[in-house]
Design a protein that fits this description.
Length: about 110
């Protein structure tokens, strides 16, 4: 299970990098919408990195924070998926839910 959790975290980081790198493609001007789009990608990058950190160390507070972060990320992604209804949002939703459930039930 730990292996799949790690792979999912790397995939989430990759998704965030791809998402953020598409900002100049979708937004020709530097404005608030472009920043929100870029920031959404960054949130997935940071979420993935934090999950990798929680796997690396065996500190209860880090693990608890990862679970809280994953819960908030899941709520955020559900909202995005509900509003956008695009394929990449559903991919992110499956990935984030898997990471959240894995962080809850993983034996450390």
């Amino acid at each position: 299970m730990k292996k799949y959790y790690r792979i999912a975290a790397y995939l989430l980081i990759l998704l965030g990098v791809v998402h953020s790198s598409f900002t100049p493609v979708f937004y020709k001007n530097f404005n608030a919408d472009a920043l929100w789009f870029f920031g959404s990608g960054l949130s997935y990058i940071f979420m993935g990195l934090y999950n990798l950190a929680s796997l690396k160390v065996n500190i209860k507070s880090i693990t608890s924070m990862a679970i809280i972060l994953n819960f908030l990320g899941t709520i955020f992604t559900i909202a995005i998926t509900y509003i956008l209804r695009e394929p990449q949002a559903f991919i992110a939703l499956v990935l984030v839910i898997f990471i959240f459930l894995s962080s809850l039930f993983l034996k450390r």
